[in-house]
Here is the input.
Amino acid sequence: IMLGLAGTAQMQRAESQTYFMDAMNGLFGGQVVPVPGGVLVRNDAGEIIGAVGVTGDSSDNDAIAAVAGIAAAGLTGEI
Here is the structure.
């Protein structure tokens, strides 16, 4: 939520612009973890209303589990 980017987008950004994620982690005290599994939650209007983080399996499976839970609540997940 801090960046308005889901985990997958953060990972892509970290891979292409390491300096950007380094700067963001400086601003947010090292709390940015740029890996899949952090999924933005959007309402019907497309606004970010929260996020879900899942861990315990591979990052890709974590993201799939998060999206399934978000969909079950009738919302849209963005990986």
Remarks:
- The first strand starts at residue 38 and ends at 42.
- The beta strands are 38-42, 48-53, 76-78.
